[in-house]
Amino acid sequence: MSTVLLIFCILSAITLATAFLTIFTKQPIHSAIYLVLCFVSVAGHYLLFNAQFLAVVHIIVYSGAIMILFLFTVMLMNLNKEDEVHKPRVTRLAAGIIFILTSLVLLAVFIQTKPIVGPYDETGVDYQSIKVLGQVLLNEYMVPFEFASVLLLVAMIGAVLLSKREKTEKN
Amino acid sequence: MDIAYILLLLLAPFAGFLFNVFFGKKLGHNGAGYLATFAVFVSFLVTHFYFVQINQTAQPVTVKLFDWIQLGKFSIDFGIVLDQLSLLWLMFVTGIGSLIHLYSVSYMHDDENRHKFFAYLNLFIFFMVTLVTGSNLLVMFIGWEGVGLCSYLLIGFWYKNQDYNDAAKKAFIMNRIGDLGFLIGIFLLGHLFGTLDYAALKSAIMSGAEVDHTMLALAALALFIGACGKSAQIPLYTWLPDAMAGPTPVSALIHAATMVTAGIFMITRLNFLFGISSADMQTVNMVIAIVGAFTALVAATIGLVQNDIKKVLAYSTVSQLGLMFLALGLGAYEVAVFHVITHAFFKACLFLGSGSVIHAMHGEQDMRNMGGLKKWMSVTYITFLISSLAISGIPPFSGFFSKDEILMTAFHENKALWVIASLASIMTAFYMFRLLYLTFFKEFRGTDEQKHHLHESPALITFPLIVLAILATVGGLISLPGNSWLSHYLEPIIAYGGHSEHHLDATAYMLMGLAVVGGLIGIGIAYAKYLKKGEVPPADAQMTGFHKLLYHKYYVDEVYDALFVKPINAISTFLRDTFESALSGLVFGLGKATNAIGDSGKMLHNGSIGRYLFAFTLGVVAIITYLFFNKIV
Amino acid sequence: MGNILNEIGIENYIFLSVILFSIGVFGVLYRRNAIIVFMSIEIMLNAVNLLFVAFSTYHQDAQGQVFVFFSMAVAAAEVAVGLAIVVSIFRNLGSIDLDNLKNLKG
Fold first, then answer.
1. What are the tens digits of pLDDT across the range C23-52?
2. Taking each helix axis from N to C terminus, what angle separates B84-107 and B31-57, rounded to the nearest 10 degrees?
3. What was the ipTM of the complex prediction?
């Protein structure tokens, strides 16, 4: 077993474990923290692919921005674990069944589609440095890129509008 | 230029109709009436212009307004043809139409729905013009249906009276039966010749195209059924007497002078078809002649005993139309047309005169309650007398010439029919003078209050009467025996050289003498019975025997009721009570089942996001499964 | 530099992604807390992103990674709006329990 494979196994274990914990922990705060760990481990996978820029962006966006939002919301609402009641037993059982079903179906799909036989391509061409990514992003994907910026702007305005207190309207 | 004039001719009444429908109420008291009269008069002027023109040039004017229907090789234009026949018809349709419009201004002056009345009248003129001028059978059919509609609207004009509504419906339904025949005839002709255009049909038939003559005769028979419906012949005549429920000007215009002659117009227009000399076609012509003769006789016998002044005139109209069909059946088209024209004059005059009487009597129509009106209504009396003389066939009034022509034709072709027609015309003379004596002579038999109100009608009513009386007097001049302007004028229309003009030999003079004597006998009997002896028809309950049978119109309505109406009603009731309830049970059952499914389906939608998410996930899994494993397996 | 997949194998990434995705689905179905449900959705998105990057390397093509950028932008927007909605729901109802939200009922 090579070092890389070992690293992959450890990272994968962390990813799956923290993802499970995110869901099973009662305290929302703990969930959020496990989720941060999960995201960091995914960033580790990206690093394993040698996609450093993506990894950094991932950590900044997910662990930095999105998780901070989650944490703020959780703290804003001051949720305790007593607040949440479990779903009925039947529902939980059904959720479990669907979990297994989804996994099986998706796995079957991927396995059935195309049998993979190594070795993999090794063109040696640089395809994931910041320079190449920037060129692809701003040449081929110029218009979607602009749309993404508009989407973010609209989301920002929407979030502000939604969370504004309505008292100002009534005056 | 022609197109502009023709559009004016056609659309002036239509514009009058539209204007009266939408703005008629705002036009002041008589505004709608004068506007409508003007609209028809415009049409009359245009007609007159063309009439004068065609008298000089003898060239028909044909205009194609637009392509109407295109079905592969089969095409129908919306075309207008102004030839000798249609112009002749237009002359008296718009001419008498104008007079009757003018008359109606005064007659309807206190009706709150005047504007509607005049709108309908204008619409009627529009459709009548369409009927007459159309260049093919389908355009004629538009007019044909349109005048039927207007007739329905106007018979039921006083819609608050249920009897009148029933009369309107009866007229409409009877006409529909005839129209079905007409349509079948049109279809057959279209199938046989691939065209409906008169000119094309005529050239196809005249050139002796290879056609199944039996089918052709069937088409002619179907067309004749259509004519029966419109022109009130046996067995479809019963609607016309009931149609007297409408206002009197309507009876004069639609149910005496113009619309009911549409059947004669149609057959004359298609004389190249009806005149074919094949054995089958001769049978058809024989049927037409016999139906006409019997209609003339039956209607005349019923007319003998009617007491309603308008009913007498209605049966007289049916009887006269029967005579016209007799002439058509015998192939004497120009004679039938001649009688149509003179009949339009004197019958319109008679109806308008009876309207004047009814007007003076405040709606009273029963002759038993009249009498002695001569004293109060001299103009009405004199015009009525002239028209009665005309219809009775007394020279030198117009009716003498036209009726004599028919009788002479019948004498030459078929003696039995001549006897029937002569009997009918003697009866005509009798009941017309019975009507005259009962209405205008002896003492007044109505109530004192009515007597107090008796008065001569205003000038607007008497003016059309006088004009029509003059026309009824001199109308015969257009076709004097031996020197007929009309036969000459209609020559281009009659495909088979017309029937030979009668020479004024001894037989002809003898027949004329016989006809006059017959008319005088009828008048004499009426004179002896109603003036000398002063008889008044008995009240309804006291009638006996044959008199009662006649008074109740041979119980034809009752027979039709038992034969057709009641069985159809029974079937309808059966279908409604058993069939429809079963059907609706099925339909409603389906509805209920759907409702129940919906109700149970509603339970799924309880608004719980959790449950929706389950369904959503399962759905996604199912879709993926289907998409991928379908391909691979 | 060698292709990393030669040492790990694309199928391992596929398994990882599938399981991660399923965990997200499970979380959405299992929990009643709207925020945790949101977190589960983020897990699902990450699973997909991971697969994108893996196939980007497999094909030696940058487009997969560019897609991940867009996916991140959309996720950020979604979370911003979604959390704002959750906050306003909490403000109005005093709870973010999904089973208490039955206003979808027609």
1. 999 998 888 888 888 999 999 999 999 999
2. 160
3. 0.88
User: Domains of chain C by range and CATH?
Assistant: 8-99 (1.10.287.3510)
Buried/exposed B508-535: b ≥16 CB within 10 Å, e otherwise: beebbeebbebbbebbebbbeebbeeee
Give the per-residue pLDDT at B479.
Answer: 81
- Judge: B617–A98 Cβ closer than 8 Å, yes or no: yes
Which tokens belong to B207? 């050139």
| Contact (CB, 8 A) for C3 and C57 | yes
- Spatial contact of A94 and B614, defined as CB atoms under 8 Å apart: yes
Beta bridge partners of B79: B64
Q: Cα–Cα distances in Å, from B525 out to B53, B435, B532, B582?
A: 48, 13, 10, 64
φ, ψ (nearest 5 deg) of residue B136: -145, 175
Closest CA of chain A from B628, distance in Å: 7
Residue B633 has pLDDT above 60, yes or no: no
A170–chain C nearest CA distance, Å:
16
**B415-440 and B506-526 helices, crossing angle to 10°:** 40
Task: Flag whether residue A102 sits within 8 Å of chain B, measured between CB atoms.
Answer: yes
Cβ-based neighbour number of residue B594 at 10 Å: 10
Label residue B72 left, alpha or beta by phi (over 0 means left) and psi (-120 to 50 means alpha).
Answer: left
**Any idea what the Cα angle at residue B475 is, between residues B473 and B481, rounded to 5°?**
110
Query: How many residues belong to chain A?
Result: 171
- CB distance B37 to B98 below 8 Å: yes
What amino acid occupies position B411? F
At position B543, the amino acid (one-letter code) is M
Q: What is the pLDDT of residue B366?
A: 85
Instruction: Write out chain B residues lying below 8 Å of C106, CB-based.
Output: 602, 605, 607
Closest by CA to B186, choosing from B366, B178, B524, is B178
The secondary structure of B415-434 as a DSSP string is HHHHHHHHHHHHHHHHHHHH
A117 bridge partner residues: none
Contacts of C89 in chain B (CB under 8 A): none
Mean pLDDT of B78-97: 90
Alpha-carbon distance C39 to C63, whole Å?
27
Cβ of C35 within 8 Å of Cβ of A91? The answer is no
Interchain CB contact of A80 with C (< 8 Å): no
CA distance B186 to B425: 34
> Do you find a cis peptide bond into A115, omega within 30 degrees of 0?
no
Q: Calculate how close chain A gets to C32, using CA atoms only, in Å.
A: 7
Q: How far is C104 from chain A (nearest CA, A)?
A: 19
> Where does B330-458 have alpha helices with state H?
333-360, 378-392, 398-413, 415-440, 448-453
At residue B93, the 3 state secondary structure works out as: helix
Q: b/e for B542-572, b at 16 or more Cβ within 10 A?
A: ebeeeeeebbebeeeeeebeeeeeeeeeeee
Report how far residue B386's alpha carbon sits from residue B433's, in angstroms, rounded to the nearest whole number. 11
Q: Please report the residues numbered 18 through 37 in chain A whose beta carbons come closer than 8 angstroms to any beta carbon of chain C.
A: 19-20, 22-23, 28, 31-32, 35
Report the C-alpha gap between A29 and A78 in whole angstroms: 10
- Does residue B235 have a cis bond before it (omega within 30 degrees)? yes
Residues of A in contact with B610 (CB under 8 A): 87, 91
Contact between A63 and A34 under an 8 Å Cβ cutoff? The reply is no
Tell me the C-alpha to C-alpha distance, in Å, between residue B68 and each of B75, B77, B79, B138.
8, 5, 9, 10
Q: Measured between alpha carbons, how far is B540 from B558 in angstroms, rounded to an integer? A: 17
The nearest alpha carbon in chain B to A109 belongs to B628
Confidence (pLDDT) at B590: 92
